[in-house]
Each structure stands twice: as structure tokens, then as C-alpha cells.
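Why do we bother with holo predictions? Because pocket geometry can differ from the apo form. Keep that in mind while you read this record for adenosine-5'-triphosphate.
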Amino acid sequence: MKTYKIACIPGDGIGKEVVPAGQEVLQALAVASSRFTFDFESFGWGGDWYRAHGEMMPKNGLDALRNKDAILFGSAGDPDIPDHITLWGLRLKICQGFDQYANVRPTRILPGIESPLKRCTRDDLNWVIVRENSEGEYSGVGGRAHQGHPIEVATDVCMMTRVGVERIMRFAFRLAQSRPRKLLTVVTKSNAQRHAMVMWDEIALQISKEFPDVTWDKILVDACTDRMVNRPASLDTLVATNLHADVLSDLAAALAGSLGIAPTGNIDPERRYPSMFEPIHGSAFDIMGKGLANPIGTFWSCVMLLEHVGETEAAQTLMAAIERVTANPALHTGDLGGRATTVQVTQAVCAAVSR
Ligand code: ATP
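The structure, written out:
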């Protein structure tokens, strides 16, 4: 029997509620399949760890994760610690340390869930956003000088490399090619950003030649927001920079019904390191500790994790279970206008996979 070694990092806020829920669902799947098991190891890194140790995770923390098959992550964010410390000290340290350069964000309107778009049917909105996850606007290149003085200066340099753009474009074209519509939209801003984004466009054209069966187009990021709202069916796979995709994928999640549902995978396509799966929502302090967090985003992330390790059938079983549960409004959490708790949704999904 195959055993998958999974690192669990709940992190902060509702991450501490949804990650254990994800483990429960994975465990129920393993029992139901009796073909594989999970060996979970949990790491208590995040805000509390920072208060105790002065860092979000240990310096050699990546070594503890290196031999895992995958990582299930919750969220990083603490009301008492600046956001750039929580983000760079944990999530980005793992994403960058393991060169998880492709961030994949599927969006669909699940059964029983209403989109705020009144003319949008479930068939109209079925997207995957590919986010460049290793450089661009979030490369960390920049600095501050003369702090506190009138001549203070601060820069965040958007750094793009040919290697970085070529590999994310190739990944996006390949993903688009694997989907029925074989349709890719390259999001850009090369009218205003006339260096890096022009190279981005040139490389898109170059890589497109390797994929003659993929239909592709290019759109400015501002126009893309309009197209997502008014012509959702014209989109299928999208590729965008780190910042652009960050914003577009929150819009996508909202258009599909709630931030609480949306999953993501931080993937190292070359499989040199473990990939990391997480809901796209943050720590949501307003609802933490109340048992109200929607765990569906984490469960859908578990579907992506299962696909990544090659358990396609189990991934399909879990996705079908999620859809059976969302179809029932009595099992909707508060973000979807319902009254169900994290525990009730988790139990319902566990029961559905065990059927
Ligand atoms: P961060 O700064 O860590 O990104 P945040 O609290 O600013 O976190 P999110 O957690 O991403 O932002 O979400 C914003 C709001 O959406 C939350 O305050 C919460 O009310 C709601 N929300 C997000 N995720 C969920 C969820 N899984 N279940 C229910 N509500 C959610």
C-alpha cells in the first residue's frame, strides 16, 4: 500500500481550523480507498511561533519538508505582526525555497452556489488562472534608504527573467492544451510597463509556436477585469504575472461565489521539491475560532494535491463529494449565506467520500 508523506502547516487564523478539516477528509478518503494511506506531520509555524522564537519558521525548516510528497498549507497572517513579515517569513519562504514557480488557481461555480453575476451560468465560468509565482513584482528586489527623512526613498523592482517567463508560459500553454477548449489568454500591461512586460509579450509569442493547437490571445490586465465580468465564457486558461494574477484570482473567486471556496496549488512542475496546496483565502480573523470557516477551499486544494501525487481517481471522488455537499444549501457556511459550521461541512464531505 502506498503511503504519502504530507506536511501540514495550518499557520494562523482560520488556517488552524480548515487544515485539520482537510486532514480529516483525506483520511476518510484513504480509509474508503484502502489502496493508500497518509503519513501526516504537522508544523506549528506562523504567528505564535514568531512570538515564541522571533521567526515565522525555523531557519532549517525547509529541510523538514524536503522529503514530503506534498504540503497542505492554511494561511499566514497575524493582527500583531506586519503582513510583510508573516508573508515573507513563511509562505513565500516555502514557495521560493522550493521554486514553486507555477501557482495554479482553478475557478468554477460549484453546484448550489450562486455567482453575483446575474447573467452568468455555471457553464460560462470555468477558468484556471496560472500565476507566475517566483519573480515579477514580488521578487523582493528593492530597498529603502533615508528612512524617516524627507528624502526617504523606497523601491520594489519588478524583476522578470527570460528563464522565469519562458517556463511559466510553457507551463500555461501546456495546461491550456490539456483542457478541452485549448484556449489561453495572456494577461499583460505592456502599454504602460514598457520593458519587462514587452519581454513578457515577446516570450508569449515565441512559446506559442511550440503549441500550434492552442488558440491564444492577449489582453491588458485592466480590460481583463471587464471581460471576466461581462464575457466570462470567452475565457478558459489565463496566465498573468505575480501581482496581476494575485488580484485577478480574488476577483475570480468572488465571481464564482466566495473566497472561501477557491483552491490553489504552488507547483514545482519539475518535481525537484514538494508542491504546496492551500485555500486562497487568508486568516480571516473576524471569524476565527468560531467554527464558521468554510473548509471547501481547503478540500478543493486537497483535490489538487491528490491529482499532483497521481491519485486521480481519489481526486475525482473527493471533487464529486464536494459538489454533492455544496449542492445542499443546508450545508452552506456563512460566507455563502448559510448557517452550517466547519464541522458540519467536514462531516458531510467525509460521509460523501465514504459512501
Ligand atoms: P489575509 O490578510 O491573511 O489575507 P484577510 O482576513 O485580510 O486575510 P481573507 O481571510 O482572505 O482576508 O478574507 C476576507 C474575508 O472573507 C474574511 O474576513 C472573512 O470574513 C471572509 N472569508 C475568507 N475566507 C473565508 C472562509 N474560508 N470561510 C468564511 N469566510 C471567509
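The chain has a mean pLDDT of 96.
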